[in-house]
Please model this.
Amino acid sequence: MSKFKKKKSGDLPAISTASLPDIVFMLLFFFMVATVMRDTTLMIENELPYADQVEKLQKKDLIMYIYAGKPSERYQGQFGTESRVQLNDKFANISDIQQFILEERESKREELQDKLTTALKIDEETNMGMVSDIKYELRRAEAYRVNYTTKTGEASQNLK
Amino acid sequence: MAKRSAPEVNAGSMADIAFLLLIFFLVTTTIETDKGLNSKLPPIEEEPQDPPPVKQKNIFLVLINGGNQLFVEDDKMELVDLREEAIAFLDNGGGQGKETCEYCQGANDPESSDNPVKAIISLQNDRETDYGMYIAVRNELTAAYNFLRNREAERLFGTSFSKMEEDFNSPDYDGNKAQLEENIKVIREMFPMKLSEAEPKKRN
Model:
């Protein structure tokens, strides 16, 4: 009898955690590969509108970003609450857009220069007056391809 | 001399280091939302020339006023009805003779557009209009074009237009790309996206 009892005794063996680093590394690599570092710090509120007929933007390096919206809370004391344009990391005037486009275009390889797309990331509460001014500047800079960047969802969510 | 074995490095803290890195990347990751409505701006004309004559019935006037209200051909309309109305206008095919539209399935109303190739949607807005509302309207109009293009692609090539475009942009597509491009062009020519935008009006 004692033979059988002996077998039953004994604590649960400790679970080996030796493979934990491997699992964590796997996750780590996934996020490292999937991460796109934000290259601009937003100084404006940027709540994009919704649309469901969206197309994906191809090739990230051929996109120029123009942001617009109300300055975020910490900048409101300095810049007021009127909608503003942001290019790269700083606030800009509408008249700076042309120069910005030219500089961006200059930095790309020649054969790609006419394939550039401008992505407009504009807050949904911005007035169309400002958007039209931006579009007019883009036309003056001969940057005709634009993409109104949106979130994916029912467009009726824009009406509140 | 006895061989001295190198002491084993303790790998117990490896997990901690990896976690630290993992958390850093988790926090900094932003899944970018690079999707949106594509459009092409018209070039600026040096000297304004007379626009080519367009029949009034071939123009579908969409107006968003400063209070974000939608007007279609001077009648107030809700956003949900806009898509259907735009499809009916584009697909009408009221033309006679050489303007007949063979693939249209609309009402053939002589008061509405002759042919999708001739039909122009004119989108006007006020300077006070909200961008969100503008995008919503633009989305509905794009949806109308997409619906018709998908229908024709389905009929002619047995696949939807959006699928064709997706295949064309995908590097993994192993079919005939030249043929696909040709097909996309055919559909585009059947329903060319003619969305004209006027400069917004100043508030009175």
User: Anything to note?
Assistant: The beta strands of chain A are 50-51, 55-56, 63-69, 84-87, 90-92, 117-122, 145-149, 151-152.
